Amino acid sequence: MFKQITLPYKYDALEPYIDALTMETHYTKHHAAYTNNFNTALSSLPQFDQMLAEDILAKLDEIDDIALRNTVRNNGGGFWNHNLYFSIMSPKGTKEPQGELAEAINETFGSLANLQEELTRLANTRFGSGWAWLSTDSSGKLYTSSTPNQDNPLMERNGHIPILGIDVWEHAYYLKYKNVRGDYVKAFWSVLDWSKVEEFYEGAF
Ligand code: MN3
What we know:
The chain is mainly alpha-helical. It has eight helices and three strands; from the N terminus they run H-H-H-H-H-E-E-E-H-H-H. The model has no long low-confidence stretch (mean pLDDT 97). Manganese (III) ion binds at residues 26, 30, 82, 167, 169, 171-172.
């Protein structure tokens, strides 16, 4: 059984950037439903018993039944993506990456500001629901991308492991920001904890 991460802060901890009702609804309704539906779908897929969610998401083509495959894709993605998203936010996180991650960002994007600009662009231009991503490969190289729905780079099986994800589904921002996604994405940077992103970066290779 897969479990949602325990939120490392209270629902109102990210105010005023992300409001308490959005956090509570996102975690207790949306994320809970993805997790529950993922576990239910897996109960008819014994070949994935004991496997990490990361590995299951890279093996979707092994599910013959197309409806079941889509259920695992959407809900397994929703389970995994939100565990990352909720983990990398914090009310008082570090505002800049350090160490190896900072070096890799400068090498690939020139500066942190350039990377944030690129991720903001990807988040704001993703049509409909989806995610913007910063990912690494096993050599520590960094990549940006965006995906629709609850897809993520793990499903592309190109060795890219997400270390930062920005949820741009309307459920992530609509209660506070209505249709103005850009204001939410701007606010996201105020609650992103780069020290958490560094932990995912260093754990990825
Ligand atoms: Mn969401």
